[in-house]
């Protein structure tokens, strides 16, 4: 059995809050292995093609074992909880959201996602990551 493939977080590259979330993850990622790809990238398109059920998803997607036989995707609140699991440490307290039923968590997530551009703004293009982390972005 080979080494694990680092997980990938697909995100809305033009969303202000999504970009801030990615910057926060980068700051607190002790392992430094999580990679990122914008939802409109070729890398993300290949994952979406393999998981047609997420084709219309415009939220974050957490991908475990990308490109491998065990590839799994989590979307919406499930993806956010996978990020919490990945970060570990004090972030695990946010895992208490699992006490809420997934449909309710996803409805709250979708409600926030519906106003994210108005509240946090929208970029014209996906911002270019700083040089020191650029290698963690796929299809940059």
Automatic annotation (TrEMBL):
GO terms for molecular function: protein-disulfide reductase activity. It holds the Pfam family DCC1-like. InterPro entries: DCC1-like, DCC_oxidoreductase. It comes from the Bacteria. This is Thiol-disulfide oxidoreductase. It comes from Mycobacterium saskatchewanense. The lineage of its organism: Bacteria, Bacillati, Actinomycetota, Actinomycetes, Mycobacteriales.
């Amino acid at each position: 059995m080979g080494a694990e493939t680092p997980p990938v977080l697909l995100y809305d590259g033009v969303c202000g809050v999504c970009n801030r979330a990615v910057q926060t993850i980068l700051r607190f990622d002790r392992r430094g292995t999580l990679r990122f790809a914008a939802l409109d990238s070729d890398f993300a398109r290949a994952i979406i093609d393999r998981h047609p059920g997420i084709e219309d998803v415009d939220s974050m997607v957490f991908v475990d074992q990308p490109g491998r036989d065990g590839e799994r995707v989590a979307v919406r609140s499930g993806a956010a909880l996978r990020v919490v699991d990945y970060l570990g440490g004090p972030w695990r307290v946010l895992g208490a959201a699992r006490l809420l039923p997934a449909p309710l968590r996803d409805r709250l997530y979708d409600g926030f996602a519906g106003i994210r551009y108005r509240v946090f703004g929208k970029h014209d293009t996906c911002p270019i990551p700083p040089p020191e982390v650029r290698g963690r972005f796929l299809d940059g």
